[in-house]
Each structure stands twice: as structure tokens, then as C-alpha cells.
Design goal:
single chain; about 250 residues; alpha+beta; 5-stranded mixed beta sheet; two-stranded antiparallel sheet; 7 strands; about 15% strand; globular
Length: about 250
């Protein structure tokens, strides 16, 4: 699959007349809890020839290349990327720290070297807490629940705990978050869920894990209380990002 993905990236560069600066895995494979039938969520950041950025009729700033049962491939233009970085977009920090990298370049290093300077704890907390709460409310409140959704609640919840403690972007790997911030009392249940998720094509629905739900309820409430005390800070330094953009062109 890695060989196929790299062929697809070459195809994108040729047909779209772009240079891909970074391409990574962004979904459950990068999080470390893929099922045997999980698709490949490939995300990339690209740059066009400089004349494209001087046009009145600018092209779209995203490329949606493929979406099927195996591959989900799409990317963002560097112009869009740097503007979102100035807003501390949480997705960018995840892509930058993905443990599965399909392509990287010297040019991307100039972005990667400064990216964490633009991380805003409060923005990250709102993003991960919202993700955890929406998945929890929609999928895990009934007597019978979608078991894999536990990871779409627990992982962002642990990411919040990481941010509150470390003040930095959380790592992608669930194992890192679990080792450092998951309470020992709940680990046996989460390990059981992990085994179901990673060793079955589709774990589907099952009986709710009451102990896990209680843990989620308690921690979401705690995170919400702590979030209100986090100050609103923002790195508004456009000069640095403008300099990077111009150097890339």
C-alpha cells in the first residue's frame, strides 16, 4: 500500500502541477488503533508555481484526489495551510507529528521548525473536547453502543489532558496518550476495547462499558472546568509566516 500511495502522490504532482511538501497518514493507522479493514487516510500539503498566487482567479486551495473503500487522499495548498496555522488549527499539528510519513521535503522543514510556536492551548482544548463530547453524545449513551467510537472519545479526551499538563500539541499515537494520562483503573477495559478494535474487521455494536462511560463523564466535566481558566493567547506574527511563504515560492 505504501508503494501505491507514493505512486498516487506522484500522479497528483504531475496532473495538478504541484509540488507536495509533506504527505502523511492521519487517521486510525496514525493513531495506532487501525482495524484490519481500515482505509488509508492520506493527507498532504502542496505548493503551486508562484504565478498561481498572483492570479485574480485563484485555483481552489484543496485537492480532493480519491475517496473509496481503501484510499482517502486529499490535501491543502500551502497558502491555506499557513493561514490556518496562524489560527492554531489543530489538524496541522496532528499532520506534522504523524508517525507515518509518505513524503517529506527540505521545504517542509522550514514550516515544521516553527509550527509549534503557533499552538494555542485553548484552541486545541476546544477542538478535542468538542470532538469527544459530540461522539460521546451521539454514539455511546445507549445500552447498546458503537464500540469503536470509544476511541473517538477517549483519544481526544486524553489529548485534552495532555494539553492541560504539557501545554504542547498532543502526540498522534494513542499508546503515548494512554501510557501517560489514562487512569490505571480503566486500562483493562480500554485494552479489551483495543483488542476488539484492532483484531476484528468491524467490531460493530455491543453492550455499553459502564465503567468507561463513568470515567468519560467525570473527565469531560473536569476538563470543561479547567478550560475556563486557560487564558486566550495567540501568536499573531504574520511576518514570520509571510517570510516562509515567500521563501517557498
Amino acid at each position: 500500500m505504501e508503494k501505491l500511495i507514493k505512486l498516487k502522490l506522484n500522479e497528483i504532482e504531475e496532473k495538478e502541477n504541484v509540488k507536495i511538501l509533506i504527505a502523511v497518514e492521519s487517521g486510525s493507522r496514525a493513531w495506532g488503533f487501525a482495524s484490519p479493514d481500515s482505509d488509508y487516510d492520506v493527507r498532504f500539503i502542496y505548493i503551486r508555481p508562484k504565478e498561481f498566487y498572483l492570479r485574480l482567479d485563484k485555483p481552489r486551495d484543496v485537492i480532493e484526489w480519491q475517496l473509496d473503500n481503501t484510499l482517502d487522499i486529499n490535501g491543502w495548498d500551502i497558502f491555506k495551510t499557513l493561514r490556518l496555522l496562524n489560527k492554531s488549527n489543530p489538524t496541522l499539528f496532528e499532520w506534522n507529528s504523524s508517525p507515518i510519513v509518505y513524503k517529506s521535503t527540505v521545504e517542509w522543514r522550514s514550516v515544521s521548525a516553527v509550527i509549534n510556536k503557533y499552538f494555542v492551548s485553548k484552541s486545541g482544548l476546544y477542538h478535542y473536547l468538542s470532538t469527544a463530547k459530540s461522539n460521546y453524545t451521539e454514539y455511546l449513551k445507549g445500552e447498546t453502543v458503537k464500540l469503536k467510537k470509544y476511541f473517538y472519545v477517549i483519544r481526544p479526551m486524553l489529548a485534552c489532558k495532555w494539553i492541560l499538563s504539557e501545554g504542547t500539541p498532543p502526540p498522534m499515537l494513542f499508546s503515548e496518550l494512554m501510557e501517560k494520562y489514562l487512569d490505571e483503573e480503566i486500562k483493562p477495559d480500554v485494552i479489551k476495547l483495543l483488542d476488539l478494535k484492532m483484531n476484528n474487521p468491524e467490531i460493530g455494536e455491543g453492550k455499553r462499558f459502564d465503567k468507561v462511560n463513568e470515567y468519560i463523564d467525570r473527565n469531560i466535566d473536569d476538563i470543561e472546568k479547567k478550560l475556563t481558566a486557560i487564558p486566550n493567547t495567540k501568536n499573531s506574527d504574520w511576518d514570520e509566516l509571510n517570510g516562509i511563504f515567500l521563501s517557498l515560492l
